[in-house]
Amino acid sequence: MQKNITFVNFVRAGEKKDNQAEGLGILGTASDWQMTADIHQRMSFPAEIAATSLRPDIVIWSQGTRQAVLLELTVPWEDRIEEAYERKMAKYQQLVEDCKQRGWRTWCMAIEVGCRGFAGQSMWRALRTLGVVGAERKKLITEVCRVAEVASQWIWRKRDEVWKSAK
Q1: What secondary structure does DSSP assign to 54-119, as a single string?
Q2: What domain of life is recorded for the organism (predicted)?
Q3: Is residue 100 predicted with pLDDT exceeding 70?
Q4: Which of 36, 59, 103, 154 is deepest in the core (most CB within 10 A)?
């Protein structure tokens, strides 16, 4: 096995080198991040960002730097991952525009994990953009895929039972 291999990253004419170190990501740009998650449909969108009735699954925001990240999670059939991505991005497009008009730097990330535990490219991209990279990202994706598959199996096993309202 050959050791001490060095790699040279070339930059094409007219382009600039990407100075953002991998691993810094969005989360590395502020120290006052807050997070809220839509658990049991009880979350309300942070009023300081925008007024809306939409509830993304996870909202991460920094008041100091006026940045917000909207994460929308979906567990579709694997052959519908791209369709689910498009639908979720369209759903939150107006909210992202409203946030930007109010002076917030805003990202919306639709994250898909197939019902049989396949992580869509959107998950890999979202975690890299946030700054979760390397072994940490791989471990997180493995766990999320496992949980999505277990939940899908539970739903499949319960399909013949009569579902009653939890009221």
Answers
A1: ---SEEEEETTTTEEEEEEEE---GGGHHHHHHHHHHHHHHHHHHHHHTT-EEEEEEEEB-TTSPB
A2: Eukaryota
A3: yes
A4: 59
79 falls in which pLDDT band (50, 70, 90)?
confident
Token duo for residue 62: 């920094």
Find the helix packing angle between 121-130 and 134-157, rounded to 10°.
Answer: 140
Coil, strand or helix at 124: helix
What is the C-alpha to C-alpha distance for residues 30 and 44, in angstroms, rounded to an integer?
Answer: 23
Return the number of other C-beta atoms located less than 10 Å from residue 107's C-beta: 16
**pLDDT in the model for residue 9:** 66
Q: Is 135 helix (H, G, I), strand (E, B) or coil?
A: helix
- Supply the pTM of this predicted model: 0.74
3-state secondary structure of 37: strand
Q: Can you say how many angstroms the Cα of residue 27 is from the centroid of all Cα atoms in its chain?
A: 12
Rounded-to-integer distance, Cα 61 and Cα 66, Å: 7
